[in-house]
Amino acid sequence: MPQLAYVDGRISLLRDAHVHVEDRGLQFADAVYEVCAVLNGRLLDWPAHIARLRRNLAALFIDLALSDAALALQARRLIAANGQAEALLYIQVSRGAARRDHGFPASPRPSLIMTVRRFDFGQRIAQQARGIAIITLPDLRWRRVDMKTTGLLANVLAKQDARAAGAFEAWLVGEDGIVHEGGSTNAWIVKDGAIITHPLSASILPGIARASLIALARSAQIVVVERPFSLDEALAADEALLTSTTAPLLPVVRIDGHAIGGGTPGPVAARLAPLVWGEITRQTGWVPPAA
Q: Which domains are seen in the chain, by residue range?
């Protein structure tokens, strides 16, 4: 089927979809976004994504008049029109088009864009079985990365450095040696059976998959510790992990070429994985393929 996009109430072919050249999302990255997983044609963790979208819109003083119910209706309409049962739904809301000026326009009309792109979640099963490698880089982002805005240039450069190094991801490290998160993922380590991740703050994105893993782990009596951890701690960890909407849980087996644990996925990751996939199945009915 042809790929379709939604722009301000209208669904059209992706190649024909457009926004104004002076849209503030283009001019200033004056916009927020969400990426939602679609599995078996159903949205995963939709209420959490909408709640985060609303928080971020409020933080930027963007008033999207569309109700949550209407937004869900339009999102599902676009998913159905695209005919993709396994995909990513991208939602972006900008302040809208206005004469280029740093200050807010007097009467902004926010712009809503949505696209649906096919995505193979099954690929994560093989990666989960063998583990992934990451690199580390200085965290050069602005100081409010807890807001999911489209100002992602530092993330783009980090992800490109990871790709050039043959790694899956780049973990971003502060000047104090503390690991914040990845370019598009949350970061975890495992020590003495406990999983450890950076606490919520302005230094990390409050990941939806992060929150889900914390709840699942605690329900399974796995100790969860939310505290900062250093790169030195990560290199000495028993295991390391990352989570995101597009990578629900992946074991990290090498950091900057250094083997973590035995250099293979560890027992805590093996215990967590079926919990994560089980929750996905519970919400959507999607069953992961065998490794």
A: 4-119 (3.30.470.10), 124-284 (3.20.10.10)
